[in-house]
Amino acid sequence: MEHPTLETMAKWLAGRLEHEAVLREIVPHLQDHCPVCREQYEQIRRLTREAGHSDEEVGVVEWREAPELLGRLEELPFPEQIRQIEEDEALHTWGLCQLLLQRSREVVSENPRKALERAELAVAVSHHLGAAYDLGWVLDLRARAYAHLGNARRVVGELLSAEASFRKAESLLAQSRTGNLWAEAEVLDMKGSLRMDQRRFEEARKLFDRARELYREEGDSHGTAKVFLKQAKLFREMEDLEQAIAWLQRSPEEIDSVQEPHLFAAAMHNLLATLALAGRFGEALELLPEVRSLLRETARPLDWVRLRWTEGSIAFGLGRLDEAEAAYREVHREFLKHGVLYSVALVSLDLALLLSGQGRTDELKRLAAELMEIFAAQEVHREATAALVLFQRACEEERVTAELISRLSVLLRRKG
After folding, report:
1. DSSP string covering 240-309, please?
2. Does 143 lie in the same domain as 68?
């Protein structure tokens, strides 16, 4: 590589060399001749990507300070955390807001209530980001914070509140006018999940298609693979199981198992679960060891719970009723412990089908009563509430059938 010219060096030392020229003429030279500079440059690029901001100083300084700030916050009860954010200017940083969003996303499936709290904190921080930051970028970050809030509300079943959060997110994106495709993709991606839960399938499909297109434009292989999985789930929710299976069988071509091991494992687990749901229990049983092996390297706690649920379904389909019941009861306890209430309800219906087939009406009645108690204080869509009431009445009147349970399962998925 050629050395910078004398004129370029003079401008640089005088502080008058434009930023783009520094990146083009000075930085590559330092990288080429100094391995330490090259390593530091790559570290800065990584930290800036993680911080979600184009300013390298934000990426390095604020992102590295954010874990300590978050640690201080999380020592306090949640109401006190909110108060601290309102009063303590040291917490009004881009890095902390971005870290809260990352941590919310990481736990939304495992601990949705914690994800909800972190998203609420991120929204609060985003409203206190001042003139040190570009207003358009702040609006994009705030939009993303509201989208994460909406996503967490969706997962805990608060769908009306989730809808309001996404309306706010889209309004903020429209105001920002930065053309930040990645921020738009993230909002559309999460809104698609809400539309899918609301059974508004055509809208969900369009949102996923657009989000995947934007992630591709941005070169985000993780985002692209993530939406690929959601599109497979959409086929499943539409009860087109054969199309969902065919889609998931493309996973090795669509998802790099080395670059994205968690998403690849999730894709294969989803294929396993869909095979079981389609009644293809022999194929599911053959795939089970491979999925277990993949999850050993990548699984979070609830991944094992969901695999156990699938194992129960396979056992039920193969007539191993004792194994299936043990699995369903274990999964029911774990979902309840983690507050994933719709999953509690759905696995309860699987257990109900098993109990009904054995004529165990007293246990069915207890199961229905427990479900009504669990959901009594939750913000649940009226159709879901109606489904639970129908289930309880059918159990009380000892007229539960497989057809009724199947219909209730469909109704219960309609959260919007």
Report:
1. -HHHHHHHHTTHHHHS-TTT-HHHHHHHHHHHHHHHHHTT-HHHHHHHHHHHHHHHHHH--HHHHHHHHH
2. yes
DSSP conformational letter for 306: H
Angle of helix 402-412 relative to helix 382-396, nearest 10 degrees, comes to: 160
pLDDT greater than 90 at residue 175: yes
CA distances (Å), origin 40, targets 37, 60, 252, 293: 5, 10, 34, 36
22 lies in the same domain as 55: no
Cα 3 to Cα 88: distance, rounded to the nearest angstrom = 48
Per the structure, how many domains does the chain have?
3
Residue 340: φ, ψ to 5° = -90, 80
Same domain, 105 and 156: yes
Residue type, 197: D
Q: Judge whether 308 lies within some domain.
A: no
Query: 170 and 95: one domain?
Result: yes
Examine the pLDDT at 382 and tell me if it is beyond 50. yes
For residues 382 and 380, give the distance between their C-alpha atoms in angstroms, rounded to a whole number: 6
Mean pLDDT on 270-293: 95
Q: Do the Cβ atoms of 12 and 26 come closer than 8 Å?
A: yes
Q: Once rounded to an integer, what is the mean pLDDT over residues 103-115?
A: 88
* Contacts of 345 by beta carbon, 8 Å cutoff, 6+ apart: 371, 375, 384, 388, 412
One domain, residues 82 and 16: no
Alpha-carbon gap, residue 259 to 223, rounded angstroms? 12
Whether 196 maps to a domain, the answer reads no
Residue 242 located in a structural domain = no
pTM of the model: 0.74
pLDDT value, residue 324: 96
- Domain with 2, as residue range(s), is 1-33
| Count of all residues that appear for the chain in the document | 416
